[in-house]
Amino acid sequence: MASAKRVVVAMSGGVDSSTAAALLVEQGYQVIGVMLRLWAEPLPSPPSPLSPPLPGEGRGGMGEWGGVSNRCCTPEAVDSARSVAALLDIPFYLVNAEEPFRRHVVEPFVAAYAAGRTPNPCVACNRHIRFGTLLRTALGLEAEFLATGHYARVQPPEGESTGYRLLRGVDRSKDQSYVLHMLGQEELAHLLFPLGGFSKRQVRHMARLRRLPVAERAESQDLCFVGGGDYRDFLRRYGPWAVRPGPILDQAGRELGQHEGLAFYTIGQRKGLGIAAGEPLYVLAMDAGRNALVVGPRSALGRRELVASDVSFVSGRWPTQPLAVTAKIRYRAPDAAAMVWPLEPGRVRVVFEQPLRDITPGQAVVFYEGEVCLGGGIIE
């Protein structure tokens, strides 16, 4: 019976996770609310930009540097989650996960920008923190499931020959399977996504009906650890070596101007280059070795191929032959028809039917077959 099953709900103080918790209580689960403390302040000042720390070096690194206000675990967010837990009459715990978050999410975030890549820290957080640290916490509390407010669905095995499948959320405008592509059979066996079959509008309506105090809370699209500024402010403070000015070069290597730091640009960007030319210029590449931004005409944009690493498949089975899929190269990108060619385990080559103009190293490429998320990896 569902009433005997214990589930830990990842609570953020927002409407999604709060509604997920309320639905599970109504379904008869024994619900425990858990919120992760991910990023705190204040601490000592960052080191000189001339000597960036090595990830994991000593007790230093990002976790001991000065702090900025964040929104992922503010006192207000903690109070909101705690008030929802009290209303639902469920226990609530605040768990410190600052060290693994620093090591697995924030340090690689800065390092990626320093290397001329554009990272997606939500993917790293899901891989290591939400469905790593938090899932282990849930199992340590003798829970059978971990539940989150993600807009995605888990389909149980249908017979002995199939495993768990990860499906897109019903609300395509909110579907979050892209940032969940790294989940495998071991994780999916213990995961619940109560909101996957609803739209955002329905979720807010359900929150209002249940008089949840967070029903009207605004939704933020910011990175949870950058606080009231944006990622540029965060990098200036925590990774100044990643934002060094350098040359803007054309495809022939001629210098056209100066950029403010590679981290402030992305592939396909046109505005904000600060250079005059006879035709519009776009960012084509970021050369970290020369700290150079390479620009060119729109006609030079677009590639049909990419190589991805850190690739995993939800089924747990590595393909032995090419796969015909649709793929997304960014969270908000449309699906594009492609063939996935397996290389050595963990790496694939993806060839698209049509050139895509904004294939960006550091972002995730995620593979689909209709509603089913097959897996994905990080664009090299």
Count all strands and give the number.
Answer: 17
- What's the rounded overall pLDDT mean? 88
Strand/helix succession: EHEHEHHEEEHEHHEEEEEEEEEE
**Secondary-structure arrangement, i.e. CATH architecture of the largest domain:** 3-Layer(aba) Sandwich
Helix share of residues? 10-25%
Distance between the termini: 46 Å
By CATH's scheme, which homologous superfamily of the largest domain applies? Answer: HUPs
Secondary-structure class: alpha/beta
Short description:
With 380 residues, this protein is α/β, with parallel strands linked by helices. It has seven helices and 17 strands.
3D architecture notes:
This protein has helices at residues 15-26, 75-88, 98-114, 121-140, 185-188, 200-209, 231-238, and strands at 6-10, 30-37, 92-96, 145-147, 152-155, 165-168, 191-192, 246-249, 255-259, 282-287, 292-296, 303-313, 323-328, 336-342, 348-356, 364-369, 372-379. With 380 residues, the chain is α/β, with parallel strands linked by helices. It has 3 domains: 2-149 and 194-209, Rossmann fold (3-Layer(aba) Sandwich), CATH 3.40.50.620; 244-300, Adenine nucleotide alpha hydrolases-like domains (SH3 type barrels); 303-379, Beta Barrel (Elongation Factor Tu (Ef-tu), domain 3). The chain has a 6-stranded antiparallel β-barrel with strand order 12-15-14-13-16-17. Strands 3-2-1-4-7 form a 5-stranded parallel beta sheet, sandwiched between helices. The chain has a 4-stranded mixed beta sheet with strand order 9-8-11-10, with no helix packed on it. Helix 1 links the parallel strand 1 and strand 2 (30-37). The longest helix is centred in the middle third of the chain and has 20 residues, at 121-140. It is globular and about 70 Å long.
